[in-house]
Write a structure and sequence with these properties.
Rossmann fold, 6% strand, 3 domains, 45% helix, binds flavin-adenine dinucleotide, DNA Cyclobutane Dipyrimidine Photolyase, subunit A, domain 3, 5 strands, alpha/beta, globular, 5-stranded parallel beta sheet, Serine Threonine Protein Phosphatase 5, Tetratricopeptide repeat, 496 residues
């Protein structure tokens, strides 16, 4: 950076997704240009809506914000929290603090891009320079796009792997946290400290039923969690996603770093290079796309697709999405969402989703397939919105991409491969411990009937204290029948 071009001046550092101080390009840049540094976080009314961003997800994000504030305080600084429309808040702050620079990290989802466009335009009018850095992905996505030389982004992983092979490995993370200047006088600016979730309008009423997530947000927890995994070198080099178990939940069979990566509490570049270090010290290692590094490539691939594909999160106007003629039945959708389909594995998973805000990848597969092409023939957009609300790792690009995948709307075409809500979990967990944990009503059901309790004789149901139709629902559909019918429908779509 040419220091002459950037004489030191008061600077706002706007924290959005990268809720961390390690490996933070915007933070580094801000410290280079700031005579005084004002770290801000904006609670945008667009996101403050429990119907859209559920309690667990909001709480996890606030925990990350709180941890960031704690870290900044070690430098005699702190996070200045504002409520309001970002352009208005930033303009007010810039004027009050006489700022010359606004630093933030690039966001790629559609809402953020539109928001940032407005911010950039207004800052230009005010003569404030915006310094925008990449940092939420392994690569700067704009650099990947230039390497495509006008070609569209490959929709298959093999094509994506070829692209990044041309580019070389991603940049290494920043080694040290830069010195963060202490916070100056704030003048006449009305800001708050980091709120508790129950202080946010609309959320407090969910507090009693929703305080069930076992994962705590924050950069310090994220780094500690990553370090714990890095000690398991043998596990890392043998990691193969399809061989992990959807029904292992204590502990889960994958890292559960997704919520931390999503909130930017953990730098994806740092995680990548730590995994690479472990892999390089072993002669044997699994390879992308099934290895752990391969999982980060899935993320990167879906981010790049989300960034370049119009209307990526919907069917209409989305050039890579097959327009399948889905139908909507409110009672079926609500049964799925509320975990009352009568299929214990589906219902346990949807309960876990709401209680934990997280599900194993293959469990996500099964419930997504059930809602769409497997059983209920309901649009993936509905399922995507439910996941978006409840997942603490709810991520615009990754969520939409995976829902398109599971519903055979894009990427995946083997529509005749349908997950059975009975046989599939039985393979991993014949005793049904996962179901018993998340659905206590079925706790005493004999293993023989745990995935098909409606088949249990009445006496067995009575002994298990669970009468089907009274304590737990009958299946809303016949899986085998729906599967056959829907494969036929899919065949027609694919023949067109
Ligand atoms: C229908 C559906 C919706 C999904 N929605 C989301 C979402 O909103 N947010 C989200 O982060 N993941 C989503 N996933 C992908 C995946 O299920 C999760 O990333 C993964 O289960 C997170 O657990 P983990 O951190 O233990 O993963 P690990 O297996 O430990 O993988 C490490 C990291 O790689 C990334 N990753 C792993 N799998 C994928 C994948 N298939 N696609 C993209 N990135 C991946 C995540 O950042 C993850 O933390 C979805 C999958 C499906 C089938």
């Amino acid at each position: 950076m040419d220091a002459k071009l950037y004489p030191k001046s008061p600077t706002i550092l706007w924290f959005r997704k990268s809720l961390r101080i390690h490996d933070n390009n915007a933070l580094l840049r801000a410290t280079q240009v700031a005579s005084q540094l004002y770290p801000i976080f904006i609670l945008d009314p667009y996101y403050i809506n429990p119907e859209k961003i559920g309690y667990q997800r909001f709480k996890f994000m606030l925990e990350c914000v709180k941890d960031l504030d704690k870290s900044l305080r070690k430098y005699q600084s702190r996070l200045l929290v504002f409520y309001g429309e970002p352009v208005t808040v930033i303009e007010r702050c810039c004027k009050a603090w006489n700022c010359a620079y606004l630093c933030f990290e690039k966001d790629t989802d559609i809402y953020s891009r539109n928001r940032d466009k407005k911010v950039l335009e207004r800052m230009k009018e005010l003569g404030i320079q915006c310094l925008v850095e990449s940092g939420h992905t392994l690569y700067d996505l704009d650099i990947l796009i230039t390497k495509l030389s006008g070609q569209s982004v490959p929709t298959q992983m093999t094509g994506f792997l070829k692209l990044i092979e041309q580019v070389g490995p991603p940049p290494r993370p920043i080694e040290h946290v830069p010195t963060i200047p202490p916070l100056n006088e704030l003048g006449n600016v009305d800001c708050s400290s980091v709120p508790e979730i129950d202080d946010i309008p609309g959320y407090s009423e969910f507090s009693s039923e929703c305080n069930t997530c076992p994962f705590q947000g924050g950069e310090s927890v994220a780094l500690e969690r990553m370090q714990q995994f890095l000690k398991r070198e043998d596990w890392i080099v043998k990691f193969s996603k399809p061989h992990t178990s959807p029904t292992s939940f204590d502990p889960p069979s994958t890292t559960v770093l997704s919520p931390y990566i999503k909130c930017g509490a953990l730098s994806v570049r740092l995680f990548f290079w730590e995994l690479k270090r472990v892999e390089d010290s072993h002669s044997f290692k699994t390879k992308p796309p099934t290895s752990l590094i391969g999982q980060l490539y899935w993320r990167e691939h879906f981010y790049l697709l989300g960034y370049t594909t119009p209307n990526f999160d919907q069917i209409q106007g989305n050039p890579i999405c097959k327009p399948i003629p889905w139908e909507y039945r409110e009672d079926w959708f609500l049964a799925w969402e509320r975990g009352q389909t009568g299929y214990p594995f589906i219902d346990a998973a949807m309960t876990q989703l709401k209680q934990w805000g997280w599900l194993h990848h293959l469990t996500r597969h099964v419930v997504a397939c059930f809602l769409t092409r497997g059983d209920l023939w309901i649009s993936w957009e509905k399922g995507k919105d439910t996941f978006e609300k409840y997942l603490i790792d709810g991520d615009w690009s990754i969520n939409a991409a995976n829902w398109m995948w599971l519903s055979c709307s894009a990427f995946f075409t083997r529509y005749f491969r349908v997950y059975s809500p009975i046989a599939f979990p039985k393979k991993y967990d014949p005793q049904g411990n996962y179901v018993r944990y998340f659905l206590p009503v079925l706790r005493n059901m004999p293993s023989k009937y745990i995935y098909e309790p409606w088949k249990a004789p009445l006496k067995v149901q009575q002994d298990a204290n669970c009468r089907i139709g009274k304590d737990y629902p009958f299946p809303i559909v016949d899986h085998e029948e729906m599967k056959k019918r829907n494969i036929q429908r899919m065949m027609q779509v694919f023949q067109k």
